[in-house]
Amino acid sequence: MNGAARTFLSAILCVLLVGFGLCGAWGTLVGLPGVVRGSGGGESFDGAFLVCGLIGLAIAGLCWMAIAWLERKRPPPSGE
Fold first, then answer.
1. Among residues of the chain, what percentage have pLDDT more than 70?
2. Which residues are CB-neighbours of 41 under 8 A, at least 6 positions away?
3. What is the CB neighbour count within 10 angstroms for residue 68?
4. Are 24 and 64 in contact (CB under 8 A)?
């Protein structure tokens, strides 16, 4: 993979990492207290927030691993 394609893919993965990471963290933090507290009735969306937040964090983790893989496969800089 050439340098321009690697840079473009890294930039896209970084944007996805930040987006899914922030939204996933927010969803998890919003949903977790309601699930732990056990708010009565069926009109609460806390469980949905928690599930979507955890999925977002999982996607962010996959982006993190893909960025690490891209950086590990980067050829060493030439000294010339």
1. 84
2. none
3. 11
4. no
